[in-house]
Amino acid sequence: MKTHTQYLTFNTNDKIEFINITEKIKEIISQSQVKEGLCLINAMHITASVFINDEEEGLKKDFKKWLEELASSGKKYFHNLTGESNAHAHLKRTIMGREVVLAITKGKLDFGPWEQIFYGEFDGHRPKKVIVKIIGE
Amino acid sequence: MKTHTQYLTFNTNDKIEFINITEKIKEIISQSQVKEGLCLINAMHITASVFINDEEEGLKKDFKKWLEELASSGKKYFHNLTGESNAHAHLKRTIMGREVVLAITKGKLDFGPWEQIFYGEFDGHRPKKVIVKIIGE
Amino acid sequence: MKTHTQYLTFNTNDKIEFINITEKIKEIISQSQVKEGLCLINAMHITASVFINDEEEGLKKDFKKWLEELASSGKKYFHNLTGESNAHAHLKRTIMGREVVLAITKGKLDFGPWEQIFYGEFDGHRPKKVIVKIIGE
Questions:
Q1: Hey, are the CB atoms on A91 and C37 less than 8 Å from each other?
Q2: What is the ipTM score, two decimals?
Q3: Any alpha helices (H) in chain C, and if so which ranges?
Q4: Which CATH number fits domain A2-136: 3.90.1310.10, 3.30.565.10, 2.60.120.460, 2.40.50.100?
Q5: pTM over 0.95
Q6: What are the tens digits of pLDDT across the range C9-33?
């Protein structure tokens, strides 16, 4: 059995930003030398997300608009009484999900034709980590 | 360590449709001969989902109605300016989730009394794949 | 390869309640003696959730209020025609997610600074199980 652990750090310019990390993940899978197994990728911060969707600019705008409708940054939140302003970011990340689990087959990411992996930031301007954990053989 | 990989293909009659795949997954787990491990099942298309809920007709109708309220097919979306009409399907699948990870114990799906696995289609009428990846011993 | 399986049972006082299970999960990981691997934790009931977020009272209130806005307990649901009253709980759990998958590194939960694991109950007052399944070496 083989395991492989790696950390990525992101510090976005925008408060809300999606970064395509598919190529980075492919490299890490290649380095792991795991031929058959599973790969967990999760945001280690609770106002960020790792999710899978389409690399299409319009759709990324739709996601941002939709998340603001579902969890508005302008509403009043109990969490923000602590001095924070990011309650909405916790909710947005909940919709998008914390983590993805991917299959590795014959040494490669076993993916559909349009699947792309994104780091989703909802409260940016500071460094945040993502873990990639691979197990298999 | 054992690993097992299998693909399922779905081509639904309806644009939005939920298909119960629990028995199919039980068969695949049995074929894998894995006694203790994890089973990843994910939609390989980004307008489809694999999720776990109840086999109850009323609830399935509730899910469809609710998803249409949260991500209406009748709204304007940037993604649809590309010629697509399925932006809402990307959003609906995000709510329902891309994947599930299941426990295998003593050679069987380790499930609660009402857990059932569904393939969720949100932009049907064409063949789409689901991967089942099992690792364990 | 090592695997470890354990079950937790929760019977909440409130219909909707979040219970922090992080310390319990750390103990189970320690008992498993797995040094490098993955840990799946999932609610075995379809009106409950396991999710990761912040241990902050205000935010927990925000989550409950927000979920009630997105999936109101006061609406009419087809599922409730069966005699149930918990359709809203199925929808709320869908937003929060069924499961989490965690990395184990050097024998410990590989977590970010604010990550905390919660059992989320949306239709309480009866015993419900959660499975913890660990695989690794």
A1: no
A2: 0.97
A3: 22-32, 57-70, 87-96
A4: 2.60.120.460
A5: yes
A6: 999 999 999 999 999 999 999 999 9
